[in-house]
Specification:
- This protein has helices spanning 13-24, 27-30, 32-40, 44-68, 75-83, 85-117, 123-138, 142-173, 198-212, 229-258, 270-277, 281-315, 333-350, 356-388, 390-395, 403-421, 425-478, and strands at 2-3, 326-327.
- The chain has 479 residues and is mainly α.
- The chain has one domain (2-430): Amino acid/polyamine transporter I, CATH 1.20.1740.
- It is globular, with a radius of gyration of 24 Å.
Length: 479
Amino acid sequence: MESNHKLERGLGQRQIEMIAIGGCIGTGLFMGSGKTISIAGPSIILIYAVIGCILYFVMRAMGELLLSNLNYKSFVDFSEDLLGPSAGFFMGWTYWFAWIVAAIAEIIAITGYIAFWWPNLPPWISALSIVLLLLTLNILSVKAFGELEFWLAIIKVVAIISLIALGIYLCITGFVSPSGVTAHISNLWSYGGLFPNGVSGLLGGLQTAIFAFAGMEIIGTMMAETKDPERMLPDAIHKIPFRIMIFYIGTVMVLMMVTPWVDISPNESPFVGMFSLVGMVSAASLINGVVISSATSSSNSGIYATSRMVYGLAKNHHAPSIFGKLSSHKIPTGGIFFGTGLVLSASLILTTTQSMMSAFELVGSVTAILFIYIWSMILLAYLAYRKRLPQAHDESKFKTPLGKTMIYVAFVFFAIVIYALGLNENTRIALYFLPLWFVVLGFFYWFKTRRSVNQKALIAAFKKKVIEQNVAAKIYRAR
């Protein structure tokens, strides 16, 4: 049953913070960090710190723009207002697609985690089960969804804190694994130093690390469902990037202190591998369950983001009107069914490939490139805002620190990441995809605008004909 109500403001402070953390901390950390560590070694610590710092300024720019006009419901709204209708169309659909691809990456990873317990279970059964679960979670009311996502995210946060504490304990007690490895902080620099692979290691690490931070901007899609955006948005932006940096940097440091980076496999979760290496098989199984819930939480946030984004696009006449309708629970179910259907179809295909990690790496690279575009558009909108509305910036209570300087620094950093992605044959394929995506989007935008122009022309011609007929009728009556 359809309802014409607006989206419900049912998300509280703790919920939006955990949804953002849940969207960001997923397979990029739990699975992708193994690949990054194997390439970059201990320099992954610097990589995570730099990415987190750059994206903090992206978040600050987004927050200042959203709070400059509370009629903005997402970053797509201010992009369309400041950069033009085409920017809103391209950014909205790209963000929608980025989360679809990210959710696919999460599902692929989950099938691999489940195989840790049931190696003979067909991957398509795992994929189907998880997607049906995501569908069920997302058709609930936003308040119920927020509460469920809060507890899913809590599981991963508690697990990360526990892992860090355990790792520190193992180092203090000098734990020696069955393979003869002693847990110690010196493991960070005892295998080639902090930068064992030099600049090439740093650039290679960027290729996989950037995907780990995708999703930090998801709170920019929650404005319409947040109880008190003027208070809650700044608070969330202040806290979340630093929390994520602590979780990321803390976990990889502990992993490399307990397990030397040269022994960490790039083809499996280093979290599970660490406990297996030190002989704690039961703990490894428990962590595997946590990793599954973490990936489920991340993909759950992705389905939320895609449904809200396509709802906003429909309201701005950039998507079919059916996606702009709400259920009796004030949920955009059209976008939810559409998104989960695409995720399921692609996941069933990709989970049949020979190498899960190869599929995960390719899909993750595509996601990273799409998110770099989104972050760049946010920064371009910020520059347009500073140029067109200087008074609004002067009066802002949430100014972006270092202003334009850090915006340009961020652009340089994104260019370096794009260059790094082009160095690897597997990730280079993802670079070829972006122009193709924009060609497809450009065609649909041209078709949409042409149809709109034709409709306006037909309406104008009809009105003109009606006026001519009325004039002719008046002349006839006058005779």
